[in-house]
């Protein structure tokens, strides 16, 4: 079950400059900066009401964000929804005909498991499912 809009992911080239810009724009400082080795990405999170804004910058040429920015301008990269049970949602979406970019959920930033729905099957939008990791 989808719970809420968890965050908007914004692809940026210069994480420090974007962090400064969004700090001034949103009027709040980020609450977390984190490196995700598996995706070769640095992230910065801002809390905005009940949702978040995530800035993403690639840290290597083979990072998905670096490759994305080779073809597209900075801006909205994905929309993320929090789900109750990521594996159940992945199975449900596959049964509904959606193509997932991950066979299994991955561990990501902000203590989440995540997977992506291919934009070709989601009206051109890269959709992320995320579930908080319960230790």
TrEMBL record:
GO terms for molecular function: methylmalonyl-CoA epimerase activity. Residues 4-132 form the VOC domain. The keyword Transferase does not apply. Keywords: Isomerase, Metal-binding. It comes from the Bacteria. Its EC number is 5.1.99.1. Belongs to the methylmalonyl-CoA epimerase family. This is Methylmalonyl-CoA epimerase. It comes from Hymenobacter guriensis. The lineage of its organism: Bacteria, Pseudomonadati, Bacteroidota, Cytophagia, Cytophagales. The gene is mce.
């Amino acid at each position: 079950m989808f719970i809420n809009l968890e965050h908007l992911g914004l692809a940026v080239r210069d994480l420090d400059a974007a962090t400064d810009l969004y700090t001034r724009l949103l009027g709040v400082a980020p609450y977390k900066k984190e490196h995700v080795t598996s995706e070769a990405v640095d992230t910065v999170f801002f809390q905005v009401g009940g949702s978040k804004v995530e800035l993403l910058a690639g840290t290597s040429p083979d990072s998905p964000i670096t490759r994305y920015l080779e073809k597209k301008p900075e801006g909205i990269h994905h929309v993320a929804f929090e789900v109750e049970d990521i594996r159940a949602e992945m199975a449900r979406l596959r049964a509904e005909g959606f193509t997932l970019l991950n066979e299994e959920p991955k561990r990501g930033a902000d203590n989440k498991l995540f997977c992506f729905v291919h934009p070709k099957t989601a009206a051109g939008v890269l959709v992320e499912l995320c579930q908080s990791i319960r230790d």
